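A reminder from the course coordinator: this example appears on the midterm review sheet, so study it carefully.

Given structure:
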């Protein structure tokens, strides 16, 4: 089976090799050294200088959960909700009784300044956004959002889980407060790690250990442990090692360029009317306004090709073709020929 999915993705041979090894004991200097290196390389890859990284054991949602439950409790927040993952921030804020408003972004529109017109931005402490709304492949204009946040002194909290290593991220220049990433999207590792880059300023202001809501994902405890390159509990050791091998091997800028090139290749060789919003390099949505996505998906699966279906209202109207992971041009040639067979 060839996976054009958004996570797990096709894994590199090098990653699979690391995954096959016996795990080492981890409460020692050798493992701390690896975690410090992971922290440094992650920060470098998103241009974060005055920041710390915490490594949580869980999928990406654990990172979102930790930030919402432990840092937003006394804040008023604004959520950009343009799909499943925007809704996840809304659900988390509902769950933890956070004071929030949401801006709904419709499927066929980009987020623009106009969406903010009816909101008194000076009243918000933080803005929550999924840089790439993976449910439809939409990439938000982070320069615009960052400018707004600077102007109104709003903390910028970014879920970059599916944008990391696909689209450029500039932690320092965008003045991001929290940046959430995870192991099994473009990093192409096994699921199990959520990484959060936290600005020193945000840590100082909001993570002081007084808000005791979550024992296992306690950010204060994770920060304290990372001072010696450790985690409070047994981490996903294997994924930490896969992360280390990958970050040392790749150049983040080259990885983004490679993903952009593959996306461009697929989009220019398979003709389907594009949707009207800006796409992330991470994936291309195929839109079937009159239905038929399920039939196409079944045909592809019979041909050993697994693309990403959608949920809810879009289940028969959209398929998503990932450009993350160890995919090559030839893989897209094969996919395109199979798509043409079933759609023409
Ligand atoms: C994948 C993803 C998540 C996390 O989902 P998990 O199922 O917890 O891995 C969160 N936000 C975005 C934008 C994602 O693409």
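Designed residues:
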């Amino acid at each position: 089976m060839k996976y054009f999915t958004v996570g797990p993705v096709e894994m590199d041979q090098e990653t699979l090799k690391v995954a096959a090894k016996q795990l080492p004991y981890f409460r020692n200097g050798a493992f701390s050294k690896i975690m410090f290196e992971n922290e440094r390389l992650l920060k470098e890859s998103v241009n974060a200088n005055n920041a710390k990284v915490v490594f949580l054991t869980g999928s990406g949602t654990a990172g979102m959960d930790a930030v919402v439950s432990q840092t937003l409790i006394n804040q008023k927040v604004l959520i950009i909700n343009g799909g499943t993952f925007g809704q996840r921030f809304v659900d988390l804020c509902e769950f933890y009784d956070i004071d929030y408003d949401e801006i709904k972004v419709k499927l066929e529109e980009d987020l623009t300044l106009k969406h903010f017109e009816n909101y008194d931005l000076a009243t918000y402490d933080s803005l929550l956004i999924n840089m790439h709304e993976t449910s439809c492949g939409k990439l938000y204009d982070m320069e615009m959002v960052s400018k707004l946040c600077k102007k109104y002194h709003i903390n910028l909290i970014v879920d970059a889980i599916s944008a990391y290593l696909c689209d450029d991220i500039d932690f320092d220049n965008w003045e991001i407060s929290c940046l959430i990433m995870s192991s099994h999207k473009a990093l192409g590792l096994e699921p199990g790690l959520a990484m959060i880059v936290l600005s020193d300023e945000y840590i100082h202001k909001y993570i002081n250990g007084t808000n005791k809501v979550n024992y296992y994902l306690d950010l204060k405890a994770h920060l304290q442990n990372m001072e010696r390159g450790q985690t409070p509990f047994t981490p996903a050791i294997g994924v930490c090692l896969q992360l280390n091998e990958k970050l040392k091997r790749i150049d983040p800028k080259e990885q983004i360029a490679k993903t952009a090139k593959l996306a461009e290749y697929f989009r220019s060789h398979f003709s389907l009317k594009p949707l009207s919003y800006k796409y992330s390099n991470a994936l291309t949505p195929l839109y079937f306004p009159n239905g038929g996505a399920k039939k196409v998906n079944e045909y592809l699966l019979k041909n050993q090709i697994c693309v990403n279906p959608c949920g809810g209202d879009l289940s028969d109207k959209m398929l998503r073709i990932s450009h993350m992971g160890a995919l090559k041009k030839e893989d897209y040639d094969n996919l395109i020929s199979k798509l043409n067979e079933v759609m023409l």
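The CA atoms of residues 3 and 306 lie 5 Å apart. The chain has a mean pLDDT of 97.
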